[in-house]
Amino acid sequence: MTFWDAPTDPPPPDQPPAPGQAGKTKRERPGGWIVILVVLVLLLLVGGGYAAAYGMAGDKVPRGTTISGVDVGGLTRDAAIEELEQAFGDRAEQPITVTVEAASGEKSDEVTPSEIGLGVDYEASVDEAGAGQSWSPARQWDYFTGGDDVEAVVDIDEERLDEQLSALSEGLGTPPKDGKVTFTRNGVKTVDPVPGEAVDLDAAEDAIVAAYLGEEDSAELAVEEAQPDIDDADIQAALDEFANPAMSRSVVLVFGDNKIRLQPKDYAPALSMVPDNGVLVPKIDEKTLNDLVKGATAEGKPVDATVELVNGKPKVVPAKPGVEYEIEDVVSVFTDLLAAPEGEREGKVKAEVVEADFTTQEAKDLGIKEKVSEFTTYYPYAEYRNVNIGRAAELIDGTVLKPGETFSLNDTVGERTAENGFTIGYTIQGGILVKDYGGGVSQMATTTFNAMFFAGLKDIEHKPHSFYIDRYPEGREATVAWPTLDLRFQNDTDYGVLIHSWVVPSDGSAQGEVHVEMYSTKVWDIEATKSERYNYRAPATRHLTTPDCEPNTGWSGFDVDVTRIFREHGEDEIHHTEKFHTSYTAADTVVCGPPPKPDNDN
């Protein structure tokens, strides 16, 4: 038998297993288990060493490390922080002399680190240096093989630093000037940018921080060439992207069913462009834009249409819808529209809209188109007359009476008080002159009554003066007193009536003038006739001893009749007539003082 025939040896590689050996498991040699055991023991030994290394490093700063010159290597995190506090804590109050040099001169000042918020962030500095626990092999490697010199992490208030450096460098060099884009009613204007000289803030900050960390007491800075933040390219971008499109054509804001068209010349004062991170961005003045919108709408409650005189002619003033909106919504829509192309410059604003009760069309339908009557009276100079009649005319002016409405002078003018703009003057009370607020307002009543008379409107209530005043037409005048006596008349035509009233004050050299005009569509041609005076009454004499006594020379009373004749406008035939009967009492003579004693002949 050869060597290969040994029963314990395997067959040669190229021979199949011997008969009876197929499918049987081979036994492992005892040496394989010994190798595995040895590897496990070695791993345990290495792991123990790594754990020991981790325990030695802990949260310490890598050995040999310095932070801005302060040796913190091998210290725990807390100990390193304490070391930095001892090194830098007192420096916060140690002034640093900062010198700025320029061709035009030199200036120096002291900067205290604490005043500009300059200080070391101790925790961040220590962490940046590598303190902190970690199982990472790299961390363990850094601890045992580290030793870098790292810069401390510092905080600084750049705004406060900028303020101090700006004050320090004032007068040194020429600051750069940013380019500008402005808006006027005539279009877009630009201001070219201008280079200048200024302190480089980044370099200044680095120099001051270096002095602080190096415990130096001075830092030198220089004024260098500086370019403006907004240059020519920024100006051109602002023109192309916003300014020129914004002023190219009108924009339309839509509130409900109402459209408000704003023209560039009107909204230009609301536009501006301001620097923002080196570019110009649009800015909208909310108040100016809001005023424009309010001018075309009525904030809150709607405003009815009306009619007013423009250059002496009646003109309809359109109604304004009541609109409630948030100005932020208006600004947002408006800003988007400014940059939109033609055909897309209309936008809807979120708003609550309430339409006016009296529309623009209804105002047009009033037919107020021509002067239908006018009347003028005159008065002698008295400053109280200028004040009181002028104030009454101001309050009546612009009154519009719709068909069927009744005018009330007392309701329109209100109580005659100082708060309402009136002063003390002479009034007739109890047949004599006394002083009271509103003296002279009856002249406004008389003038308004006559304008109503010749407009052909319906007399509802009027009362002539108790005695005749010769500057008024006989039988065609009225007096008023708050609140008992009123002047009231009704617009009984099919058209509206606009009342225009004003006063030309007396200056002592000329009489004052009171004017009242009425505008409508002319319905009647009015003629007035007057009877002769009749039923005369002689005045009496009264003696008054009261402190407010005003002497007066009396005159006779009488009756008179006035007839108003109505003809349809343009016709000769009398349509109807109306009679006004007036009975004037005698104006008593007033003597201030006791009556004379009767003669006694006995």
From TrEMBL:
Coiled-coil features, chain-numbered ranges: none
Bias (Pro residues): 8-19
Domain YoaR-like putative peptidoglycan binding span(s) in chain numbering: 111-214
Transmembrane among keywords: yes
Residue span of region Disordered: 1-27
Superkingdom to which the source organism belongs: Bacteria
Protein name: Vancomycin resistance protein YoaR
Organism: Nocardioides thalensis
Organism lineage: Bacteria, Bacillati, Actinomycetota, Actinomycetes, Propionibacteriales
